[in-house]
Amino acid sequence: MTGSDAGRPVTMRDVAAAAGVSVATVSHVVNDKPGARIGPETRRRVQAAVADLGYRPNAMAQNLVRGGSKFIGLVADAIATTPFAGQIIHGAQDEAWRHGYVLLVANTEGNDAAEKEALAMMLEHKVRGVIYSTWYHRRVELPPTLTESDHVLVNCFATDPGVRAVIPDEIGGGRTAAQLAIDAGHRRIGFVNTTTASPARDGRLIGYRDALKAAGLPVDERLIMDTRPDQEGGYAVVPALLERGVTAVCCHNDRVAMGVYDGLRERGVGVPDDLAVIGFDNQEVIAAHLRPPLSTVALPHYELGAAGVRVLLGLDDTAVTGIVSIPCPPVRRASA
């Protein structure tokens, strides 16, 4: 048989499926990659599938093999459609361009089949490596195909040994948030955390505790409260904040802070004169437009993307753990 469905050009994926091997194996055979460990029977099956399907190697791909690919892949679950997290793509794109590379972006919306197709396409284009990113910081399971290329995780991490990852410094961010309140003279500082398990939930609380201890302030467990990580959650926790006499509160994110604003306004409590409010994330559509504008801590999405490219290209060293932590800077406005 020759060709493919409805006259569609035959791809490496078609050959790989016919031969029962990976796209990477087909690429090694077709391009006769030196040093590739491929058994004679596997090589024969690939060559037979190439002949049967009438596959013609892509000239651009062959040139890339000979001259070195100038593509870097970026596979994301949803960051391309998430405004503030989309800065990851912006940072990676700028950094790739700075070093003479072009970024190939695939947004999978968390669909496993789309992710598999995207990674296969990038292997077919002989990318220099792949940035694998998620829109919120979390642990991920590595897709098997990802390990067929050089790769770096961004805004996520894996427990597999030797996997490099670039993540936000959640502990440092929590410390920074509390320090904003401490620097403003507050001594009874609350912390509103999320009920959702995550590195952000754990890390920011550790940083808050560290900052209070470093300032010689007691850590009062009654001032640490959990709520939903949204505007309604912030609104719901206001009575407890007032009843426990806090003069400042660090919120898990800017949406929670917005809900705190709502609850305080209803009760005639002024921000920051009566109670200072500090957010986290620096979502511009929220933080910059509240009244008064919200003091917060930024998630460094642009820097995460840029650092991911640098780590992939070997321009930035990683720690022994393979983890690079990017600082979360303060954004001082008028609420603290």
UniProtKB/TrEMBL annotation:
GO terms for molecular function: DNA-binding transcription factor activity; transcription cis-regulatory region binding. The keyword Ion transport does not apply. Pfam families: LacI (PF00356), Peripla_BP_3 (PF13377). Residues 10-66 form the HTH lacI-type domain. Keywords: DNA-binding, Repressor, Transcription, Transcription regulation. InterPro entries: HTH_LacI (IPR000843), LacI/GalR-like_sensor (IPR046335), Lambda_DNA-bd_dom_sf (IPR010982), Peripla_BP_I (IPR028082). Coiled coil: none annotated. SMART domains: HTH_LACI (SM00354). It comes from the Bacteria. PANTHER family: HTH-TYPE TRANSCRIPTIONAL REPRESSOR PURR-RELATED, LACI-RELATED TRANSCRIPTIONAL REPRESSOR. This is LacI family DNA-binding transcriptional regulator. It comes from Flexivirga aerilata.
